[in-house]
Design brief:
alpha/beta; 10 strands
Length: 211
């Protein structure tokens, strides 16, 4: 099985009745290609999300991430919220803090205008695990960063051993098709010409383009 992040040959294993490939080069764990959901199945699953601004617990969880990445954002920075979902709460909270934010989502906020601009930061909040071709997607986003810009990712890091991986709840979402270990972000930063400024369990990484 090909690693969809770096292209190397991944070591195949079965967990919870599904096949995966764990890459010995970058550490990425990818779901077998035959189980990747169709765009229609993805959208139907996302429409079941109830991630609302009115949910104080959800907002607090988003604020944890915002506060973790804010030291890497310039005052008034221009941000792209990539894969913003039906209700882009991170974008709303960042606007309230004085940032300019464009929300993009292939299903809920489509358009290609973000591709013709550069950005002070790109947020990939609970999106990386959904990417069918993460190598291509993250390389495209990194190329849009201005000098000193930050690629800010939130995605749950998988358990260290395969026995714990099988019952891991995060794995069981049908649209979660790939998982990033902490060391994957170290590899990714080197590949993309970025600096791993923050890699912090359980779920956050900030990769910065040199100024």
């Amino acid at each position: 099985m090909r690693c969809r992040l770096c292209g190397a040959e991944a070591a195949e294993f079965v967990s919870g009745g599904a096949g995966y490939g764990e890459c010995p080069v970058c550490g990425y764990i990818g779901l077998e290609p035959s189980r990747l959901p169709s765009p229609e199945a993805e959208e139907a699953r996302y429409r079941l999300h109830r991630n609302s601004r009115s949910d104080s617990g959800y907002v607090s969880w988003i604020l944890e991430f915002v506060e973790a990445v804010e030291p890497y954002l310039r005052p008034g920075a221009e941000l792209l919220d990539f894969g913003s979902g039906p209700e882009p709460v991170p974008a709303a909270l960042l606007r309230e803090r004085g940032y300019s934010v464009l929300a993009y989502d292939p299903f809920f906020a489509p358009g290609d205008g973000w591709r013709s601009r550069t950005w002070d930061a790109v947020l990939v909040h609970e999106v990386a695990e959904h990417l069918a071709e993460p190598g291509a997607a993250l390389a495209e986003l990194a190329a849009l960063l201005r000098p000193g810009g930050a690629l800010c990712v939130r995605t749950r890091f998988p358990p260290a051993d395969r026995e714990a991986f099988a019952p891991w709840r995060y794995r069981m979402d049908s649209t979660h098709v790939g998982f990033f270990r902490p060391e994957t972000f170290d590899w990714l930063s080197a590949r993309l010409g970025l600096r791993a400024a923050l890699v912090e369990p359980p779920d956050r990484a900030v990769l910065v383009r040199p100024a």
